[in-house]
Design a protein that fits this description.
The complex is a heterotetramer of chains A (about 240), B (about 120), C (about 190) and D (about 575). Chain B has about 120 residues and is mostly helical. Chain B contains 3 helices and 2 strands, in the order H-H-H-E-E. Chain C has about 190 residues and is an all-alpha fold. Chain C contains 7 helices and no strands. Classes of the chains: A alpha+beta (about 240), B mainly alpha (about 120), C mainly alpha (about 190), D mainly alpha (about 575).
Amino acid sequence: MLERYSTAASTYAHWIDYQFLLIAVLVGFWLIVAEAVMFWLIFKFRAKDGRPTQYITGEESHLKRWITIPHLLVILCDIVIIVPAIMVWYNIKQVLPPPDETVRVIGQQWAWSFQQAGADGILDTADDIRTVGELHVKVNTTYHFELMSRDVVHSFAVPAFRLKQDALPGRIITGWFRPNRVGTYDIQCTQMCGIGHALMAGRIIVETQQDHAAWLLQNSSPALAGQQVTPGTAAAGLTMAEMRP
Amino acid sequence: MTTEAHVHHPNYVKIWAVLVLLLIVSVVGSMSHIRNVVLIAAFGVALVKAYLVAKNFMHINIEKRWVPYLLIMCLLFIAILFAGVAPDVMKHSGENWSKFPAKQGAVTSGGPATKNE
Amino acid sequence: MSASAKPIANTRSGTGIPTVRLITWWVIASEIVIFGGLLATYVMHRLGHPEWTEAASHTNTWAGAFNTFVLLTSSLCAVLAHQAADAHDGPKAAKMLRLTVLGGLIFLTVKGFEWTKDIHEGFVLSSGGFWSFYYTLAGLHGLHVLAGMIIMLIVAADAAKNQELQRVECIGLYWHFVDIVWIFLFPLLYIAR
Amino acid sequence: MSTEVQHAEPGIFHKYFFSTDHKMIAMQYLFTGMAMALLGGFFAYAFRMQLGFPNQHVPGYGIVTPGKYNALVTMHGSVMIFWVAMPVLIAAFGNFLIPLMVGCDDMAFPRINRLSYQIFLLSALVLLSSFLVKGGPFGGAWTAYPPLSAVGAYNLTPIGATLWLLAVALEFVAFLLGGINFTVTTMNSRAPGMKMYDIPLVVWMIVLASIIFMCSAGPLIAGAVMLLFDQTMSTGFFDPTRGGDPLLWQHLFWFFGHPEVYVVLLPAMGIVAEVVAVFARKKIFGYKTVLYTTWAVGFLSFVVWAHHQFVAGIDPRMANIFSITTLLISVPITEMIFLYIATLYGGSIHLDTPMLWALGFIAEFMIGGVTGIFLGSSGTDIYLHDTYFVIAHFHYTFVPIAIIAVYAGITFWYPKMFGRMLNETLGKIHFWGTVIPFNVIFIPLFITGTAGDQRRVYSYAQFAEQSRPALQHLRTTSTIALLVMLAFQFVFLFNFFWSLRNGPSAGPNPWRSATLEWTVPSPPPHGNFAELPTVYRGPYEYGLPGLADDFLPQSVPDQAVGD
């Protein structure tokens, strides 16, 4: 159902879409029933001369069951909804599949910057590729992201991936995604982060293995491969301290 | 006009003496550097003191039943707040997150951050 | 509120608790969540930051203990005032209330000296997590003490004329609550190390 | 000052500005709330115009720059919740109705009541003053997450942020005083014979709302002090580099913020209950059950708050707990709605304007309720969080609460407040002119939300997927619908003020209602009741068999009925 409005480009996108559909069907049904009953009652019991009002306290069991039975069914539907909802959550946010690659995502007013391993495939070495506003990833590859913020609360959101996670200063939050469709997708910041909030856009470019390899080669210098440098996280920590007036 | 349960006043000076005694206990107890002794001296005694004041000075024991329940309900809400907030604010790392620079070590490329369970 | 011209609403007692005492209980309830929220956050920070213990060791236990003693004593005066009010002895109640106010005054004076010392030693509101909480908690509590003292003087003035004696008990209730808050602040800020 | 508590008519100045009469204070709250509502509506107009017709000069406002846009959305949210919904639903109706409905002459503490309004007015003025200061009003969203709200260098509105915080804190104090007063009055000052289950639902619900507010606001007041110190004294309560934690504020805020939803919902539910009972000529179906569900909602509202923070960086394990509690709270709410619908069964329904509004509330609120399920279940919230789906969802709850139910209340009690009837035709025009555009505004926003439109963004130019023309059409549609809806509000304003003088005189009980406030003249005199009533039965005795009239007022003794 969601695909109609927003392309699904990651493996767990359709989990969320199915969950959305399930909820839509169940609550849609109950909404229609409830509204229908209500309007039918309004019509059926509109004021007519000579028809007295019935005196009903609501304690009568033969009437009360018309509330109780549907209500129990609603509770049943609640359970039918909550169980898969938690499963989806568990699989997206709690258990992380083993990563093929790890990228570091740093939010700051008002840009996303990314740090990913260079040709040597190790993070925090001199040949790391640092990009701003643009993240190049391989299709069908499981990525872990380490999310952090330099200043205020941001939120790293990729609608096409059904991915959303706030970036908090002073925290590293790890998550994962596995793009399964080549293309270019929006990165949003969905947490009010100041005057430039609407300008804090980015793009995720999902490439085929070959394209990505080519991009990697021309952006990381093999000479520097393997040389340890201070982790980008330290930088994030520092800037926060500096930026305070 | 009230349900005057206040006809009988206990001997307040005696209660006050007990409270002061407890105060001394807590101070002396805190001098010892055995952690548990300090904690009991500090908070166990505080609870007793609070109970004595509430019971004898505020007459909460002879007040309408629902009043203590109301106050306890407020405390319960605070307990709920604590239970909901502590896992994020008190801890320095949890499932797939950790704080830095407090825990710089947790920042290793790849793999979820260290779990603390 | 002055003694004159109460609406009938004020004189009714559907719960069996006089209206003034009822509102006092509700005020205390709402105060519990305010202090409770602040204390809860302080406690979880304290548990999460063992390193704050060092800062906490700079607080003067003796000053705290003395203040606790002062507040306990003032609570005694407050409850004796209540006893006198029940015996319809307005002047005595007023005297006891004024003694309670004196207690509050001593409390605040001691606090004043304490804080000047801390500040001279360079510990101010912004010098670290513990001190922020130290000043915020004690400050909020101090404000309540101050408010209690002011209301108490007004009540005492009425009580001296044998008016509104039922208020003596209520301001007493409030004072005992403030006392209880301090009973917990003392170990939290001064003893726990 | 004490003279006007005695039942003598005070001088004009005292009567209108320093009155301790609960009816006058109710009017002060009502008109302040209406004024603020116009302001909030204007903000909505300004930023909806920017979204519907990007980067064009907005008539009456000008160009909406990013900074101004943030300030507009922030102020719209704050004003509509803190300075419209609460003063009108709780303070105005509470002050006017509680003493009348429980059958006493005034609030238990009239001066505390007056003080409450004066502090509220002050808070409103402090908020408005932030429009005049350097940097303009606060723009960090009504949730004011630090560090953005704590550090001037981040939000660029250092003074505005502090003023916003002060205003909110003052407003809380005002409603603590008012709420305690409501509670005490209802508990202690009821008419003789009015037992627990003889209290009209609206009184019950306003009181319970006040209690919920009282219990939930405390931690946020503490949080407000901390944030104030972070802003002005450079403390580090919410600063991670100094041992603080930004999540702490989010928790404290939502620990208040979610109960707040029910603080405004319950009075609305109460108003609707009164109106439905009167115009369906029916006893509320299962009065006690409604009450029990209300208590359940009240308690559960304290254990769901973190569903606003699923993706905010809280420990993911907590999300499961809060997801379950969130769906739990849907259980009593569903029951309550079902009972309201069941009340229609066997009645004889008169579709006067108040009833239209009340039924409109139920119909629309159900949509708001069910869409909450999408957001409460953690799985889907990952995608929908902070999108326009959320906006549409909570407007489908808040507009029924703060607009539709309020209109139900005003049109229902207007005769009692001012002694004259509103114009029925204008009322119906206003109803349809409000409810239809309301749906046209927010149904498109559900769609843009599911398409990934994020909140609080003044322009989607930067986002290829969001700047699709199809979505822009939807935004424009909803903006135009908003213009229509706003236009129809002037019908109401005209009706309101025109009827003050020209409406037909109402008489004490135009709707033939059974509760106590209809036994006194309209408008009620100072001191309300000539002699204070005694209560003999519940508030909803309609359609009793074997009676000449189809309703039995609460204060008519049984022997007078003759059974």
